[in-house]
Design brief:
194 residues; mainly alpha; Hypothetical protein af1432; 10 helices; 65% helix; globular; binds fe (ii) ion
């Protein structure tokens, strides 16, 4: 029987989620929860849903490609050719399904986990909060992070546009395949760059 988590249960949820992570990822997930709470307060998202989504967003990230594909099969996740070869893309989808199975999360939390890697056009407030918290949480360090954090303090749609652009530039510079969901998300948000 799945457990329904209330705010009171967050310490137990954290404990169970951290046990599913590689040690080095725990600080990232703690940072993501902290940042998600800040963004939720700033922009008016539900802080409880933000906390649950942040705590659970990477619970399958430690699994290799074979195990990601086993979970896709189990949950009926249809993968395209780019996803089939990418743990980075698959863990969002397998993570959302696993979180729903284990913790009976609500649909908006499921969606925020599902879209946290690629983004998509016209995201909900909670989806944007989790996408951005994952990107700028305090342990992250990369060129341009200061600018992205400043943007996220002021305007979430502008921050999405900037974050997606930085992400696409990075994917292209590393010669990785660009997933159409990321490209479509940028097409949607790019007007906020001006
Ligand atoms: Fe992730
Ligand atoms: Fe993450």
């Amino acid at each position: 029987m799945p457990v329904i988590y209330t705010v009171k249960d967050l310490p137990r949820l954290r404990e169970e989620a951290y046990a599913m992570l590689k040690k080095k990822r725990v600080d990232h997930v703690k940072g993501c929860e902290k940042e998600a709470m800040k963004l939720a307060m700033r922009f008016g998202a539900d802080p409880d849903k933000a906390a649950v989504a942040a705590i659970l967003h990477d619970i399958t990230k430690s699994l290799d490609l074979t195990n990601q594909l086993i979970l896709c099969d189990r949950y009926g996740i249809i993968c395209d050719d780019i996803e089939k070869n990418s743990v980075s893309l698959l863990h969002s989808k397998t993570g959302a399904c696993r979180a729903r199975e284990l913790f009976d999360i609500e649909q908006p939390v499921f969606d925020a986990i599902w879209w946290h890697t690629t983004g998509k056009p016209d995201m909900s407030l909670l989806e944007k909060v989790i996408y951005m918290a994952d990107y700028i949480e305090p342990t992250r360090d990369f060129d341009g992070i200061g600018k992205l954090r400043d943007a996220a303090r002021k305007d979430l749609d502008f921050a999405m546009a900037l974050g997606l652009k930085m992400s696409i530039d990075e994917i292209i510079s590393r010669n990785l395949p660009l997933h159409h969901n990321t490209a479509d998300a940028f097409e949607f948000y790019k007007e906020y760059l001006n």
